[in-house]
């Protein structure tokens, strides 16, 4: 007879201990989920204390301290949502680990914000409203507060549902809503708003087309060549050089204006110089890296990994240089208005305000960024180093083209649109490419249907004809994610505007 049968107390004790173990495990799981929000709240509290050291003794210090905490909350959300577009493709392509991506992005985002972040910003987000129309400095401060709170809340919601959205559009919507609530519809520059609305379409479409064109070139010139390694040695240095020239021109125009001002012609010359030097060096690099590699697609992936990691770092630097103003621009406007008791269209961002923005973006990325990084890199469509390289290259080139034409464009919409473009192009290519079919037939390839999960990159659909239902089942871009993201894009400005108007009216009533 067993011990438990003869000792009912022991059996009861075992059950109780087992329950305690389960309760402890459940508590640990819940506690782990609360770590990130807890650290985020700690950062907001430290930000308030940090701001208090710079405003100690001032008559309206409480307003600045509250605004600093709200700006820090905005920065956390930018890091959680927007930065995923820079490193997500590299993580999805397995060119770097999630931990490595978080480290690289945090370092380069902070460097871009502190080294090349603009010291003078347009406090009303590109002229959306006329500050003079808002009225008193106190009303302007409330409008900027409402814009910060609403845009931060909207980005937080978008992150929660897994939709990468434009932080610039969120701020624009917040400023517009507060301006309408404070001074009516006539205070809004509707011509500028029309351009911004047009960028909802222009950004993803142009980004997607450019990414698809580069992927088509890589497939034709490298992947489906009989001697892949020789083809890579011929064409990959050119692609790397284009990337270097594009990033050099982009960073010169948009990211380094604080360090030294350069005209469009000067940026083009710098970009061409980097293109030429990089082309020469890339020949040496690719030739050395390709020694001894087998003639297969896996070898090509290894050749694209290093350029992809570098592009992710450069995108993060450029993002930090340009988007930190989204977090601290309204905060800087509040600080200036409180100090000077007047409203101005442009203000200088104090260093301590810039530090809050840079730190918040990096901390938000580390604490909350992995969710969106996985979404962008893994869940929209399957990426490898070649496809992710096309996404990064497309993002840089599209922003340069838009800047040259004077068009407002969203880096988020561009990068995600490039991922859409790569995925939709693959769907079309796998079904219609005669070159691919001839290449596979030459190699005698016949695949077994496996729901698009083949180890080889572009062999997800069999060569034989399949039914429409089977093709639909194997779509390479997840439509549910596309619908969610596009819906979030379309509703960002009106949702942020409505929320901001309500918040402004509440603040106005309380005041």
UniProtKB/TrEMBL annotation:
Task: Identify one Gene Ontology CC term for this UniProt entry.
Answer: membrane
Primary localization: membrane
For this chain, one GO molecular function annotation is: phosphate transmembrane transporter activity
Stretches that traverse the bilayer: 34-54, 61-80, 100-118, 139-161, 197-223, 235-253, 259-282, 303-321, 349-368, 388-407, 413-429, 484-507
Highest taxon listed in the record's lineage = Bacteria
UniProt-listed GO biological process terms: phosphate ion transmembrane transport
InterPro entries associated with the record: Phos_transporter (IPR001204)
Does Transport appear among the keywords?
yes
Where does the UniProt annotation locate this protein?
A: Membrane
Signal peptide start-end: none
Cite the entry's keywords alphabetically: Membrane, Phosphate transport, Transmembrane, Transmembrane helix, Transport
Q: How does it sit in the membrane?
A: Multi-pass membrane protein
Recorded family membership:
Belongs to the inorganic phosphate transporter (PiT) (TC 2.A.20) family.
Q: Cross-referenced PANTHER family, in alphabetical order? A: PHOSPHATE TRANSPORTER
Kindly provide the name given to this protein in its UniProt entry: Phosphate transporter
């Amino acid at each position: 007879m067993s011990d438990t049968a003869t000792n009912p107390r022991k059996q009861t004790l075992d059950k109780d201990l087992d329950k305690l173990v389960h309760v402890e495990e459940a508590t640990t799981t819940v506690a782990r989920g609360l770590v990130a929000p807890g650290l985020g709240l700690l950062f907001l509290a430290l930000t308030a204390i940090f701001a208090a050291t710079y405003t100690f003794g001032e008559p309206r210090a409480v307003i600045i301290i509250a605004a600093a905490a709200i700006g820090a909350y905005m920065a956390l959300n930018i890091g959680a949502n927007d930065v995923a577009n820079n490193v997500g493709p590299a993580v999805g392509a397995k060119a770097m680990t999630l931990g490595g991506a978080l480290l690289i992005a945090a370092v380069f985002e902070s460097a871009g914000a502190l080294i090349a972040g603009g010291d003078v910003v347009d406090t009303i987000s590109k002229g959306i409203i006329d500050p003079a129309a808002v009225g008193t400095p106190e009303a302007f401060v409330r409008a900027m507060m409402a814009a910060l709170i609403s845009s931060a809340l909207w980005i937080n919601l978008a992150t929660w549902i897994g939709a990468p959205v434009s932080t610039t559009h969120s701020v624009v919507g917040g400023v517009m809503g507060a301006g309408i609530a404070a001074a009516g519809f006539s205070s809004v520059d509707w011509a500028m708003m029309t351009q911004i609305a047009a960028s909802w379409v222009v950004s993803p479409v142009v980004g997607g087309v450019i990414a698809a064109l580069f992927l088509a070139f890589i497939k034709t010139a490298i992947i489906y060549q009989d001697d892949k390694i020789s083809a890579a040695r011929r064409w990959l240095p050119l692609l790397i050089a284009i990337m270097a020239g594009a990033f050099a021109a982009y960073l010169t125009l948009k990211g380094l204006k604080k360090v030294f001002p350069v005209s469009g012609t000067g940026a083009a010359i710098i970009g061409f110089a980097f293109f030429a030097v990089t082309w020469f060096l890339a020949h040496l690099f690719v030739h050395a890296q390709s020694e001894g590699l087998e003639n297969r697609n896996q070898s090509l992936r290894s050749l694209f990994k290093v350029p992809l990691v570098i592009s992710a770092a450069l995108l993060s630097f450029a993002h930090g240089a340009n988007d930190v103003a989204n977090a601290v621009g309204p905060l800087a406007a509040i600080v200036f208005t409180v100090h000077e008791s007047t409203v101005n269209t442009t203000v200088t961002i104090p260093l301590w305000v810039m530090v809050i923005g840079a730190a918040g973006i990096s901390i938000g990325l580390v604490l909350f960024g992995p969710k969106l990084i996985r979404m962008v890199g893994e869940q929209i469509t399957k990426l490898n180093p070649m496809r992710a390289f096309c996404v990064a290259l497309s993002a840089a080139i599209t922003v340069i083209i838009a800047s040259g034409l004077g068009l407002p464009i969203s880096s988020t919409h561009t990068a995600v649109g490039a991922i859409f473009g790569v995925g939709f192009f693959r769907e079309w290519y796998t079904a219609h490419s005669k070159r691919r079919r001839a290449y596979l037939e030459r190699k005698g390839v016949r695949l077994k249907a496996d729901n698009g999960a083949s180890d080889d990159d572009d062999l997800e659909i069999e060569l034989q004809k399949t039914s429409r239902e089977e093709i639909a089942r194997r779509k390479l871009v997840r439509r549910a994610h596309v619908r969610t993201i596009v819906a979030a894009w379309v509703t960002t400005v009106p949702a942020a505007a409505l929320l901001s108007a309500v918040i402004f009216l509440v603040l106005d009533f309380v005041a």
